[in-house]
Every structure is written in C-alpha cells, then in structure tokens.
Amino acid sequence: MTEFDVGVEWIVNAGGCDAAALRSVESMATLFARAIRDLSLHPVSEPHFHQFPSPGGITGFVILAESHLACHTYPEHGVATINLYCCRERPEWDWETNLAELLGAAAVEVVFVRRRIAAGETEEAIVR
After folding, report:
1. Which one of 17, 24, 71, 72 is the catalytic residue?
2. Tens digit of each residue's pLDDT (9 = 90 or more) over 5-32
3. Spatial separation of the C-alpha atoms in residues 4 and 6, rounded to whole Å
4. Would residue 72 show up in a list of annotated catalytic residues for this protein?
5. Is 68 a known active-site residue?
6. Whole-angstrom Cα distance, residue 62 to residue 85?
7. Can you give the pTM of this predicted structure?
C-alpha cells in the first residue's frame, strides 16, 4: 500500500487570554511573526487582519509557501483559535509558552494532525 504524507496541521485553542491582547492587531501580528520566524516559514504575502467593532476580536490570515496560518479571537470569552497547516514536517513549537507570553493564555489545547493519504485511510489526529 502506498502512503503519501501531505502535511501537518496544528489546531490550537487558547483560553483565559487577556481581552485587550485579543483585540490588538499588534499582538496578533507579533504572534504570527514569531511563529513564522521560529518555524522557518515563508509568507507569500503580508498577513491580513480584520478587526471587528468592540467588543469583537480579530480574524487574521497569512498565505505561506508551506500553506497557511490563521487566527480568530473572541475577547468577550478570553479565547483565541489558531490553525497552522504546513505541507511538510515542522519542528515542535511551544504553543503554551508563546500564547501565555503574548496573549496571557491560561490554558492551551493543541491538536496535531498528520495528513496522510493511503488506500482506505485519510488522516490521523493526536490530541496533546
């Protein structure tokens, strides 16, 4: 049976975050810049952020040569959700420490998905 790796994906939920950080384009841009730098990612455009009227949060997205990085923030709930998909393996990134430092996250859940294609099989999720 032939199997093809077609990428890795991190689905991240952060709770207990600072509402002001979740409303700040600067905070989210700093988060994107750090992840891009630390993981040696290659943006093909500048990140785009949309800030909703208060008390709303931010939606952010950047297209990467490797795929994409996206976020949605919910300051009214103290929550940030992040998705990073890469078409090839990347090193581990300390989501917990980075989100605690940049957003004040008290709890971080990371779901790592290894995307594979094979006869009768599609993907495998590992919750950490």
Report:
1. 72
2. 778 999 999 999 999 999 999 999 999 9
3. 6
4. yes
5. no
6. 11
7. 0.87
